[in-house]
Design a protein that fits this description.
Structural class: alpha/beta
Number of helices: 3
CATH superfamily: STAS domain
Helix content: 25-40%
Strand content: 15-25%
Number of strands: 5
Distance between the termini: 24 Å
Radius of gyration: 12 Å
Order of helices and strands: EEHEEHEH
CATH topology: Transcription Regulator spoIIAA
């Protein structure tokens, strides 16, 4: 069973560095990100999540969003993406 890491409610641009650090602390492991509480999502945090997914792919590990909030679904839709884009092997 994969570990589940909760994402904070605020993933605006100011939170991008902390998000990056949190993800890097778990590099080398497969896990899911519980995105159910996310109320704010900035473009920089989206970039961090996409870069993490590519890194985990390269490492042969999996990372995926679990229970994406409406905010995440809407924000990703604005930039032409859907939550499955964070699943391992997704484009």
């Amino acid at each position: 069973m994969l570990a589940v890491l909760p994402l904070p409610s605020r993933l605006d641009n100011a939170a991008a560095a902390a998000l990056r650090d949190m993800l890097l602390n778990h590099r080398g492991t497969s896990f899911q990100l519980d995105a159910s509480r996310v109320e704010k999502l900035g473009t920089l945090s989206v970039q961090v999540l996409l870069a993490a997914r590519k890194t985990w792919d390269a490492d042969g590990k999996s990372i995926a969003l679990l229970n994406p909030s409406e905010v995440i679904v809407a924000k990703l839709g604005q930039i032409g993406l859907k939550p499955p884009c964070f699943a391992t092997g997704a484009v």
